[in-house]
Amino acid sequence: MLKIIKTEKFSRYEFKFLLSHKKANQIENEIKNFMILDENALKKKNKKYFVRSLYFDTPEYSNFYEKVDGIKIRKKFRIRSYSNDKNKNPNLFLEMKGRKNQKTYKLRTPISNNHLEYFLDKQKVMSLLKFYSKDNEVISNFIFESLKKNIEPKVVVDYNRRPYINKFGLLFRLTFDTNLKSSSGVDVFDDKKNFNFKECVSGQTILELKFERSIQPWFHRIIQSYNLMRLSVSKFALGMEKNGYGKETSN
What we know:
Shape: globular
Strand content: 35-45%
Strand order of the largest sheet: 1-6-5-4-3-7-8-10
Distance between the termini: 48 Å
Largest sheet: 8 strands, antiparallel, barrel
Number of helices: 7
Structural class: alpha+beta
Helix content: 10-25%
């Protein structure tokens, strides 16, 4: 049965910082005066949730090199899950994330666990049109990239996230990501026990700031007080590097 699903669209600025756990904890204590926990984290016992992403790339690692080289207009695909247990029938999303100059964008659409095989095998990707509308921008772009650029699953990235949102006003979101690890992989779930996870940023927290128009004045003060330095930190690139992708053609 054809699924007509509305695609979610996000467009925002993203700044990233790499912090020691100690500094991250200090900053987290300060922002509680201005922000509240995201409702999805509130449901969890430890007030953070699990994130898993299966990233795609071309055989030549085009997406990886576009990121490393800082190409201003780029995009990549991933399948996102908030569980590592297939038996719990978790929600899955196909996401197209990219950058246009200084701003990032993300489009995502829910997908069915029953259709995973069609996303993971280029030879079956056209069958997705049996289940999803051709007007679904994320699905249609994914099919196009699969056929034209031969994108295929490369790496799985896991981490735990504690997200905060602005109490009032425009979008202003801070996320504290810890326990980042990655494995080469061609599926979202490890049914065949092939995953071999490696730590990517041991002992550190990735702080991500997402906003629509401007940084809140109180966070400017935090940036100055803690001497925060904005970095180009990509979980995708870290995962690819940690698992040796791209090294074959780097010389």
